Amino acid sequence: MVAFLEKSPKKSLSFKGGKVVKEEITMNRMGTEPIPKIMFTMGLPIILSMVLQACYNIVDSMFVARMPDANGIVHTGEYAVNALTLAFPVQMLIVAFGIGTGVGVNALLAKCLGQGDKKKVAKVAGNGVTLGIIIYICFFMFGLFGINIYLRSQTSDPIILDMGTSYLKICTLLCGGNILYAIYEKLLQSTGMTVYSTIAQVTGALTNIIFDPIFIFGMFGLPQMGIKGAAYATVLGQIVSLIVAMVFHYRKNKEVDSGIEYLKLDGIIVKEIYAIGLPAIIMQALMSFMTYGVNIILGAFSVAAVTAYGIFYKIQQFLFFAGFGLRDAITPIVSFNLGMGKRKRVTQGIFCGIIYVEIIMFIGIIGLEMFAEPLIAIFGLSDETAALCVLATRIISTGFLFAGANIALQGVFQALGCGISSLVVSLLRLCVIVLPLAWMFTKMANAKVMIWFAFPIAEAIACIVAVIFMIHANKTIVNQMKE
Questions:
Q1: I want to staple 42 with a disulfide (CB 3.0 to 4.6 A). Which of 50, 156, 329, 375 is the partner?
Q2: Which element (helix H / strand E) includes 13?
């Protein structure tokens, strides 16, 4: 938000100590610039950043899917993609805890900066780093003792189990870069240094993309590591992002004091961090839980279906992450103007946000429906798996307009202080409806077709509920504003 402050040339007069003092009026562009312009200006960098995050996952899958057959295993690449799909929920959970904690640190630190409490600012930053280390230790222990149990809950195939174990062990034992980067990213963003956090993220993403084929296929004299190579490239990219972010934070971020004494956990600060960050963790964790549940349901009747779903899920992330980026622009714009009591701008923010997200989703539907086959062909899947993936893409994408409305309205609910409404919509679209429905469809004779309809149906039902919540919020909150 700091980056969107601008000073007006106008002056105001106030009295301090019996003297007349001229004060500059600081205006925030979120309250003055046209809503469509400011939403685009704020949303575009976030969209680019989040779409870049999607590259982490899809690049792994593209290279892994083309792994050459080895040790007498036919379609080795498909087995590897399946293993990545089963491992993905844990990776999402790591991200959930890292980003959720970072969100809490970001908001609390920015608040303390505004209050001028420099000592508490340093404590919040130090406690955030310590919490990141604790989270890393928890996932490190899972990597040592929990992977086998976790993977066996989804599959009994020995090849997939072996590949999944190899990949996930590396990603959990070395996930410190992933978690701590999320903390340092928010430390930079909370002080307005978003350019540096973006540079760190881009550097890590490029590192991952460059080293993926080198490690997987064994280039430049390195041994061919297969799926382990994909894991090493991923964690290397995360560690590079962390190092770059840390360098920028400790060298450039003069607003936050650093020291070992600030790393000591303060119960009150930890509570304040998670009062803000816990909902973000829950929301992100729901996506992990849904993917885990779908993997189990699909795996019960078709290994190819799990692989197809894994590929499609990572393709759709480009669209969904773009929607999430706009959602993260909708929330502060609507929230700021709500606080300023500007009802007209609140209404414009809600309307414009929904329209923008829906435009992205509409373009996505057209693109996926038209180019599903050539897009899936990039992964070099077998005919059966490729056909399933194309089918899944064309059926699930029909619900993207509902999904877009849900994503946009969740951002609106957060801005209006209706956190419960946002959580309910997430629960409906990610767990409560889609998982039972998918399980029911697997019992039908044409399960390989019907299973994919669970996703658009869940989005449609959740959208109806979200609209009802929005009508109520509009009546009780927006229309109650005086302007």
A1: 329
A2: strand 5-16
Do 181 and 238 touch, CB atoms closer than 8 A? yes
Separation CA 234–CA 124 (nearest Å): 29
358-378: pLDDT as tens digits: 999 999 999 999 999 998 888
Cα Rg, the chain, nearest whole Å: 24
DSSP 451: G
Instruction: Please give the C-alpha separations between residue 360 and each of 47, 113, 180, 243, in angstroms, as whole numbers.
Output: 11, 36, 31, 34
Question: d(Cα 279, Cα 167) in Å, to the nearest integer?
Answer: 29
Place of tokens 């899920």: 313
Residue from 66, 136, 43, 87 nearest 314 by CA: 87
DSSP assignment of 20-48 equals: EEEEEEEEEGGGTS-HHHHHHHHHHHHHH
Terminal CA-CA length for the chain: 24
Q: Kindly list the distances between the CA atom of residue 309 and the CA atoms of 94, 239, 325, 373, 462, in Å, as whole numbers in the listed order.
A: 21, 29, 23, 15, 21
Q: pLDDT tens across 149-177, in order? A: 999 999 889 999 999 999 999 999 999 99
The string of pLDDT tens digits covering residues 303-354 is 888 888 988 988 888 888 888 878 877 877 787 777 778 888 888 989 999 9
pLDDT of residue 32 exceeding 80, the answer is: no
Query: What is the tens place of the pLDDT at every residue in 217-231?
Result: 999 888 999 899 999
CA distance 286 to 99: 14
CB count, 10 Å around CB of 450? Answer: 17
CA 244 – CA 290 distance, rounded (Å): 33
d(CA 38, CA 227): 43
Distance CA 46, CA 329 (A): 8
How far is the C-alpha of 38 from the C-alpha of 43, rounded, in Å?
8
CB atoms under 10 Å from CB of 237, counted, come to 27
pLDDT score for 5: 40
The SS3 of residue 458 is helix
Global pTM value: 0.81
Partners of 16 in beta bridges? 19
- Residue 301 class from Cβ within 10 Å (0-12 exposed, 13-18 middle, 19+ buried)? middle
Long-range contacts, stretch 431-436, CB < 8 angstroms, 24+ apart: 431/286, 431/289, 431/290, 431/293, 433/457, 433/458, 433/461, 433/462, 434/290, 434/294, 434/458, 435/290, 435/293, 435/294, 435/297
Eight-class DSSP state of 132: H
